[in-house]
Write a structure and sequence with these properties.
4 helices; elongated; about 270 residues; single chain; alpha+beta; four-stranded antiparallel beta sheet
């Protein structure tokens, strides 16, 4: 009994230790701006395959190069409001490896009448970001039409007091799979606890032996009962071990995911 209690104590210690790290890290207060690119740039106009179509810029200049569209999302992923007084160097969206921006717009923003995000052109390859209120989880989705190529990338830069500007990678399939894993974990934790309680306070070996003694001694029935006995005795501990390993493994996975920002989900997508 003492060895069982020691094993359980160790398992519970590891379990709650991982949960403590999870909640500690998840509860850390920070100032942070996150952004990501929605897929790679998509070709919207090919000058080689225009099929007789012509494209002009706003000042009636003929465009004889490829035109692409790139989309992204920016939001306040921290815990504090970012004010204009925090700005040390203007916050910009820049295109790397492009020739020039042709057009841009904010395609969506949460409660648009409150944050009031706007974009304005800073130069040929960058846009200034302006806002009225930049509270936690406020952000916007934008798109930029530009002359360049499919290797063009987005970069958000600037200097905001005590604020980290972080680029992340969002994979919709990964988010869906991680949500499914979370549901499985919610099921595994209580099942594992129940199995450990059964292992400690219910002795299947003793109960099964008692059951065998009380039943008839016919050879066929004895064989069936002994098979059931073997399944209970031989299968219980491996099942308990398996559930414990899986549960601890999944918790460790989620703790690692929180630390590495794997589970960051933007308010806008």
């Amino acid at each position: 009994m003492r060895s069982k209690i020691n094993i359980v104590s160790l398992a519970i210690t590891i379990l709650f230790g991982l949960l403590a790290v999870y909640f500690w890290w998840d509860g850390k207060k920070k100032k942070e701006i996150s952004y990501f690119t929605i897929d790679t740039p998509s070709l919207v106009f090919s000058h080689k395959n225009a099929y007789g179509l012509t494209l002009y810029e706003k000042d009636s200049l003929l465009i004889n190069q490829d035109v692409y569209l790139i989309q992204g999302v920016i939001w306040n992923s921290g815990d504090f409001t970012i004010t204009k007084e925090d700005i040390r160097k203007p916050l910009k969206i820049s295109l790397l490896n492009s020739e020039r921006i042709l057009d841009y717009n904010i395609s969506h923003q949460e409660v648009s009448d409150i944050p009031q995000f706007t974009l304005e052109k800073a130069n040929d390859n960058s846009l200034l970001i302006n806002w009225k209120y930049f509270d936690p989880n406020y952000g916007f989705k934008f798109q930029i039409v530009f002359i360049g190529n499919e290797s063009t990338t987005l970069n958000v830069n600037g200097n905001v007091a005590l604020t980290q500007i972080k680029q992340i990678t969002i994979n919709p399939k990964q988010i869906e799979e991680d949500n499914e894993l979370k549901m499985i974990l919610i099921l595994f934790i209580p099942l594992t606890i129940l199995l450990w309680c059964g292992h400690l306070f219910f002795n299947p070996q003793k109960m099964t032996r008692l059951f065998l003694k009380k039943q008839s001694t016919s050879k066929s029935m004895t064989i069936i009962r002994r098979l059931n006995y073997a399944l209970i005795i031989k299968g219980f501990k491996p099942l308990l071990f398996l559930y414990t390993i899986v549960t601890v493994g999944m918790i460790a996975y989620f703790v690692f995911g929180i630390i590495t920002n794997r589970f960051v989900e933007p308010p806008i997508y």
